[in-house]
């Protein structure tokens, strides 16, 4: 049981507390106040995670000593529901699992304060999705992915799993198969593993539109828009998790982009879209030259559905780029346009200084070269024309109770 593991780690957590209060507790009468303060600070992140997953739980505190008579340290958590505090052992195994992972993470992130040098921590977890309802499964799989992906944690996590949620958050799925008594392993991309696991009955099939259930998905018309937006969001909102996707990524195979095919996909999958959480909507962001079709994309949806349609505004153009620039490229700064044209060599400059693409120019090749430049990395000054729009757009992705904070 998860709590058994937490109990086994009580000495390690106690040592973390002792190290943190050693400099604070200068006087005996301040010791227990320092213990309470340090323990509260110690589990602040843990408390936030548990409260987000289960809003009914008002607060969590470590069951630390409040007097010298309590110094026989009996480690545990106290979870507050309304006016009553409940022992952690009375909670379901899902909450216990979340407490366990957060506690182990807390201990392993504190290793740098110990004597000597500890290179890393490695967790081996068997089916972390066990005994979890779907929302907790999504949160814990996301938590494990972020925890192991943080370069400051020096933490690696191996999981065996039958969960599509764990697979979605894994950075390297390894598919294990047995044939005639022999087990073989193969490293495959996530999309392939998700499809094979569902086909073999190992995990449930999940509609691609329901991936990333905790975060907003921004759906754009094509690959080039996606790469630019991903780069822009990293610069403007590095603390946020926002998934950007397009038809080829969702469907694979010979799927093609463009507003027409995207609108057909939205119409065909409206039922799945409506089952997303309101806090994690699907947002279609159309190119400025597709603005006349925005109302078509909204058909069949209401304002209460987890779905929005936005359009790149014509107020965020680079004023030096003329009408012959289409889609995302017309919002690009001079640096990216000039760098791409060193290879494409099709951009012309008019007498008034504006740039244009000749009618017989290979615009597809030019778009590809722009994408290569963007993929190498952009700087915030490259967003000078679109920053205001994107900041408003990012704010609109937050739930109503967060957007004004």
Shape: elongated
Percentage of residues assigned to helices: 40-55%
Q: How far apart lie the N and C ends?
A: 39 Å
* Beta strand %: 5-15%
Q: Please tally the helical runs, counting DSSP H or I stretches of 4 or more residues.
A: 17
**Low-confidence runs of at least 5 consecutive residues:** none
Give the integer mean of the pLDDT values: 86
Strand order of the largest sheet: 9-8-10-11
Order of helix and strand elements from N to C terminus = HHHHEEEHEHEHEEHEHEHHHEHEHEEHHH
Tell how many strands the DSSP assignment holds: 13
Question: How would you describe this structure in keywords?
Answer:
405 residues, alpha/beta, Rossmann fold, 3 domains, 4-stranded parallel β-sheet, 3-stranded antiparallel β-sheet
Describe the structure.
This protein has about 400 residues and is α/β, with parallel strands linked by helices. It has 3 domains: about 1-100, no CATH class; about 120-205, Rossmann fold, CATH 3.40.50; about 215-405, no CATH class. The chain is built from 17 helices and 13 strands. It has helices at about 1-10, 10-20, 30-40, 45-55, 95-110, 135-150, 165-170, 190-200, 225-235, 245-250, 260-270, 270-275, 295-300, 335-345, 365-375, 385-395, 400-405, and strands at about 55-60, 75-80, 85, 120-125, 155-160, 175-180, 180-185, 215-220, 245, 280-285, 305-310, 350, 355. The chain has a 4-stranded parallel sheet. The chain has a 3-stranded antiparallel sheet with strand order 1-2-3. Strands 4-5 form a two-stranded parallel sheet. Strand 12 and strand 13 form a beta hairpin. Helix 1 packs parallel to helix 5, helix 4 runs antiparallel to helix 5 and helix 14 packs across helix 15 (about 365-375). The model has no long low-confidence stretch (mean pLDDT about 85).
